[in-house]
Specification:
710 residues, Cytochrome Bc1 Complex, Chain A, domain 1, outer membrane lipoprotein receptor (LolB), chain A, 3 domains, 13-stranded antiparallel β-sheet, six-stranded mixed β-sheet, 27 strands
Length: 710
């Protein structure tokens, strides 16, 4: 036994020496050579045209009992009217959520869930999309629903309104994310703010969309001869063709006249642009100019150029701007190309405010350097290998293969376009990179965009040229005021004077410098009413500290002149500028502040006439001031105290008509204060505030308006 163990150990020792000796004799990684990659075998995809003109791609795959389909429709937001931007998006959404005349959207949801199936629809910039996924055994049922949605959408008003609410909510939040701001506004610099390739929905364009617009938009573009369908999965080709012919048999082809899409007109010129964001400590930077299209013969060389300049961990931007200079955690760059219109060449990064100009210079240097000196052979080979070694992942599923062919067919490109790119990339040389860099990159005509706080930049952006400051304020549709006659103004002034006297008088109101309140806030939620304790402290005219005891812990919001912040259990953060502005307006609309302005003669008052409120006749006033714009106050003619105020503002769900209804009053220091106030948004009750204690001209420490240290 010992002998055998000794032999085994000796043999193992020899094998170990042989293994380690071989390992230690390996060549350096730069000298390693790899065999040529094997050819990718692409499954055969069949293409047929149905009797109604619909093109269909079919790919059998019997590995799993699943069937998927994807449709592409020639329709898009490029075709929607400029005054109804958002029409395509809403149409694409409500086609699915609204269901059909035979089967409402909610019933479709239930049916699909019972079969573990899905159907989705949407409309993007240049195309509409519809897809399904289903078990083989349920394909007939789901195909029937799918075809019905494409042919006969119902577009019910409630689902349209829900889609509009969601879109308004997205508009309200669009300035919350700095990356989104930078990308959106840079596209405007390249294509123009009104271009269909850069424009976006606004409250006014969403409000203008009516149900008939959706009906007509669908009717114009949704015809079988304007659809390409791809189907793959566990089926027999002939049998699937029969199924498709049957479910789409009643869909008639039609002649479609497409609106002209404006050409992209671009002037190469250097510009410097700033979006001021004082609530951030980093700068998002994008700089570049127009790009090209995919059918450019030089596209293959530009693919490799992308890899060398800005794509991935081995790119020059990553190695030099991020790693060597330590200027950014995230840095990127690409020369993008589109199918039908030019893409964008851009590079960018996120850097701390104090290195903004240094980072811009570093990125410009890398763009200029690649146009002035040739890349190395090592860089070229690494970039090509990076692309070619990942090429196989374009074919790792049947869905990827057939959807890509669907896309090429849709845009009129060869079905083997991807394989042509591969062959083109393999032929790219160092000289090709140098030639296309000099031809397509314009380091002296870059448009620079910085989103950040210019007060903290290392140098002013003006070192690059005149600075254009971009306003990203979200426009809110203005309400048209009734024409103010001299009589209406005089009657409004007299009525407002009576309100001031009823509230306590001019002198008493003018003497108020601070107010402290304790109250109970009842907030309406989908789960019912939720009560919270609130303490608020106001130093007029522009300081507010409000603390709310929520189920998640204490939340504090502070407005201190030109700054606003929020603090909670997880820490503190600056509030976005739009939210700070809203807080200022809300403070200006506060009942007491309104009457102070009225007592000082600073409000423009217009008499609006009488109307009924809660079964009682009240008199309306339109009040205007630069601090809040305008609002309506409705006065009880018996007490001359306000019954309610009404105004339009922007909430997280978009513009809303807000009403504060005063139900009970309390007297403090000869002044009348609302004791119970019910708040409504668009007619829906949202809050009830019941005041428990009010102190006037109480000493409020400055520490209330300072951040708490952790």
């Amino acid at each position: 036994m010992r002998t055998r163990k000794g032999l085994a150990f000796g043999l193992l020792f020899v094998l170990f020496l042989g293994f380690t000796g071989e390992a230690f004799s390996q060549k350096p990684y730069k000298e390693l050579r790899y065999p040529k990659l094997r050819e990718i075998k692409i499954p055969k995809v069949d293409k047929v045209v149905l009797k109604n003109g619909m093109k269909v791609f079919l790919l059998e795959d019997h590995e799993l009992p699943l069937i998927s389909a994807s449709a592409r429709i020639r329709v898009g937001s490029v075709y929607e009217p400029p005054d109804k931007v958002g029409l395509a998006q809403i149409t694409g959404e409500v086609m699915r959520t609204g269901g059909t005349s035979r089967m409402p959207g909610d019933k479709i949801d239930e049916a699909l869930e019972s079969m573990a199936a899905s159907i989705e629809t949407s409309i993007g910039l240049e195309a509409g999309y519809a897809s399904l996924s289903v078990l083989k055994e349920d394909v007939d049922t789901v195909l029937a629903i799918f075809s019905d949605i494409l042919m006969n959408p119902a577009f019910p008003e409630d689902k349209i309104e829900l889609a509009k609410i969601q879109l308004r909510s997205a508009i309200a939040r669009r300035n919350d994310d700095v990356n989104q701001i930078a990308n959106r506004e840079f596209m405007k610099l390249i294509y123009g703010a009104t271009s269909p390739y850069a424009r976006h929905p606004e409250y006014a364009t969403v409000d203008a969309i009516q149900r008939q617009d959706l009906v007509e938009f669908h009717k114009k573009y949704f015809h079988p001869n304007n659809v390409i369908l791809a189907v793959w999965g566990d089926f027999k080709k002939k049998e699937m063709i029969r199924k498709l012919e049957r479910v789409f048999a009643r869909w008639e082809p039609a002649k479609i006249t497409f609106p002209e899409v404006p050409e992209v007109e671009y002037e190469f010129k250097p510009t410097v642009n700033l979006i001021r964001k004082t609530d951030v400590n980093q700068t998002n930077i994008i700089l570049g100019h127009i790009g090209g299209t995919l059918d450019n013969p030089d596209y293959f060389a530009l693919v490799v150029l992308n890899r060398i300049l800005g794509h991935g961990f081995t790119s020059r931007l990553f190695r030099n701007v991020r790693s060597r200079m330590g200027l950014a955690y995230s840095v990127f760059g690409t020369y993008s190309a589109n199918y039908t219109y030019p893409g964008v060449f851009y590079v960018g990064c996120q850097t701390k405010s104090q290195s903004t100009v240094k980072a811009i210079r570093a990125m410009i240097h890398e763009i200029r350097r690649i146009t002035q000196e040739k890349v190395t052979q090592e860089e070229l080979e690494l970039a090509k290998a990076s692309y070619l070694n990942s090429f196989v992942f374009n074919f790792d599923s049947r869905g990827k293969i057939i959807r890509r062919m669907l896309t090429y067919e849709f845009y009129g490109y060869p079905l083997d376009f991807l394989q042509r790119i591969k062959k083109g990339v393999e032929r790219v040389t160092v000289d090709d990179i140098y030639r296309v860099a000099r031809k397509y990159l314009r380091p002296d005509a870059l448009q620079i965009l910085a989103v950040g706080n210019p007060d903290e930049f290392d140098e002013p952006l003006s070192v690059f040229g005149p600075v254009n400051e971009i306003d990203i304020t979200i426009p809110v549709p203005e309400e048209k005021a009734p024409e103010a006659s001299a009589g209406a103004l005089e009657k409004g002034r007299l009525l407002l004077r009576k309100v001031v006297e009823a509230a306590g008088g001019k002198e008493a109101l003018a003497g108020i410098r601070s107010v402290a309140r304790k109250a109970t806030l009842a907030m309406e939620t989908p789960q019912g009413s939720m009560e919270m304790k609130v303490e608020s402290y106001v130093l007029y005219p522009d300081k507010l500290a409000q603390t709310i005891q929520t189920p998640m812990g204490k939340m504090k919001q502070v407005l201190a002149g030109d700054t606003a912040w929020m603090q909670g259990p997880q820490g503190s953060m600056d509030l976005p500028e739009a939210q700070r502005q809203n807080m200022k307006k809300e403070l200006a609309r506060d009942y007491l502040h309104l009457l102070q302005l009225a007592a000082e003669g600073k409000l423009k008052a217009q008499y609006l006439g009488k109307e009924t409120h809660n079964g009682k006749e009240v008199e309306g006033l339109r009040l205007e001031h630069e601090a809040f714009g305008s609002l309506q106050m409705y006065v009880d003619p018996e007490t001359y105290l306000p019954a309610k105020i009404s105004y339009k503002t922007v909430t997280m769900q978009g513009p809303a008509r807000v009403e504060n209804v005063y139900l009970e009053w309390m007297r403090v220091n000869q002044l009348q204060f609302p004791k119970k106030t019910v708040g409504y948004a668009n007619g829906k009750k949202v809050t009830t505030v019941t005041v428990e204690e009010i102190q006037v001209n109480v000493a409020i420490p400055d520490s209330l308006f300072e951040r708490e240290s952790k």
